[in-house]
Design brief:
Structural class: alpha+beta
Shape: elongated
Helix content: 55-70%
Number of helices: 3
């Protein structure tokens, strides 16, 4: 088995145990205009994780190459410099 599959399965097992042991732990979640009562802690953590991932998504999508600029790796740059000298 590859390391990625094994680590993914272990993460799922850890998540299942975490949810199972925290089903009785509940909290109130306030969204300024409405308060959700007795929300399981696991659900509020899941929504916080998803909100963070969605907030990061635009930065990941917009951090690509700038239009009109050529992306040159260090290796390509070294090769071009060597050929220019010769």
């Amino acid at each position: 088995m590859s390391f990625r599959i094994l680590s993914f399965l272990l993460s799922l097992v850890f998540l299942a145990f975490f949810i199972g042991f925290n089903l009785e732990n509940r909290c109130d979640v306030s969204l300024i205009v409405y308060t959700f009562k007795d929300v399981p802690v696991c659900v509020s953590l899941l929504f916080a994780f998803v909100a963070g991932a969605l907030a990061l998504l635009p930065f990941c999508l917009l951090s690509g190459r700038k239009p009109g600029k050529e992306h040159v790796s260090r290796t390509e740059k070294n090769i071009r410099e060597r050929h220019a000298v010769d």
